[in-house]
Automatic annotation (TrEMBL):
UniProt-recorded name of the protein: MurR/RpiR family transcriptional regulator
Domain of life: Bacteria
CDD domains in alphabetical order: SIS_RpiR
PANTHER family linked to this entry: GLUCOKINASE, HTH-TYPE TRANSCRIPTIONAL REGULATOR HEXR-RELATED
InterPro entries for the chain: Homeodomain-like_sf, HTH_RpiR, RpiR-like, RpiR-like_SIS, SIS_dom, SIS_dom_sf, WH-like_DNA-bd_sf
Domain HTH rpiR-type stretches: 1-75
Species name: Lactobacillus leichmannii
Length: 243
C-alpha cells in the first residue's frame, strides 16, 4: 500500500497520526533515519513506529524506507505550487503608485470601490478593509446602480475601479460619467495599463497575471496579485492613520 495514498485516516490513532504527519512532512529526512530516530523526532516509542508502519500496509521497516526512497515527492520542490507571483507581476514603480493613491484616499471624504463579476469580490474586500481603517468606503457591484445621482452633491470622492481587462463595457459607461468631475479622483486596478478604464483614470495600479480559463468560459485566473495590491494599499493607509 502506498503510504502517501493511505486514505483510511479514521483508522489511525492519535499516536499514528503524529507519526503520519512527521513522516509525510519530512520524507527527505526520514529516508535516512532508523526506527528510533523517527520515534525520537516524533516523540513516540519505537514500538509505536513499527505498529504504524504495519498498519499502513508495509511488511517491514526496510520496505517502508524503500518506498520513501523512490517516492516522487522527494524530487519535487515543495513550494513550487505555492509561488503565485513575485515582483515581476507589478510595475517597478508600484510602491510609488501605492503611496500616491494612499495619500489621495487619506485626504478624501468618500471612497467608492467598483467591480462586477469576479472583481466584485475584490471591490467588496477593498471597501471592507478601508472601512476598518475608518474611511467612509462603500462597494458598488451593480453596474446599473445610480452612482452619479448618489454622488451628485458629494465632494472629494475617490472611485477605485477593479477590472482585470479594463474594458468592461458597463464599468466604462459608469466611470465615464465622472471623468470631468473635479470632485472625483478615478483609480484603476487592472492588468491592462493601456485599457480604456486605465486611460480614464488619474492613477493606475496595474499587475500582470496569466489568464486561465476552464472550457474557454470560466475564468479561473488568480486574484492574488489584486489582493496584494489591496492589502499593500491598506498597509500604507494604516501607517498614515497611526503615525
Amino acid at each position: 500500500m502506498a503510504f502517501f495514498g493511505f486514505k483510511d485516516l479514521s483508522s489511525l490513532s492519535s499516536v499514528d497520526m503524529t507519526i503520519y504527519r512527521y513522516v509525510s512532512q519530512n520524507p527527505d529526512k526520514v529516508v535516512y533515519m532508523r526506527v528510533r530516530d523517527i520515534a525520537q523526532n516524533a516523540h513516540v516509542s519505537n514500538s509505536s513506529v513499527m505498529r504504524f508502519i504495519h498498519k499502513i500496509g508495509f511488511n517491514s521497516f526496510p520496505e517502508f524506507k524503500a518506498y520513501l526512497s523512490h517516492n516522487d515527492l522527494l524530487s519535487k520542490p515543495k513550494v513550487s505550487e505555492m509561488t503565485y507571483f513575485d515582483a515581476s507581476n507589478f510595475p517597478k514603480d508600484i510602491s510609488l503608485r501605492l503611496e500616491l493613491v494612499a495619500n489621495a484616499i487619506y485626504q478624501s471624504d468618500n471612497v467608492v470601490t467598483l467591480g462586477i463579476g469576479e472583481s466584485a469580490f475584490m471591490a467588496e474586500y477593498a471597501a471592507r478593509r478601508m472601512a476598518f481603517l475608518g474611511y467612509n468606503a462603500n462597494a458598488i457591484t451593480d453596474p446599473f446602480y445610480p452612482l452619479h445621482g448618489k454622488l451628485k452633491n458629494a465632494v472629494n470622492t475617490i472611485i477605485i475601479c477593479f477590472s482585470v481587462s479594463g474594458e468592461t463595457t458597463e464599468l466604462i459607461e459608469l466611470v465615464n460619467k465622472f471623468v470631468n468631475n473635479d470632485e472625483v479622483t478615478l483609480v484603476c486596478v487592472s492588468s491592462n495599463e493601456a485599457s480604456t478604464i486605465a486611460k480614464m483614470s488619474r492613477y493606475v495600479l496595474s499587475f500582470s497575471e496569466e489568464r486561465h480559463y476552464l472550457a474557454n468560459y470560466y475564468d479561473l485566473s488568480s486574484h492574488i496579485p489584486v489582493m496584494y495590491i489591496i492589502e499593500s494599499l491598506d498597509h500604507v493607509l494604516e501607517k498614515m492613520v497611526t503615525d
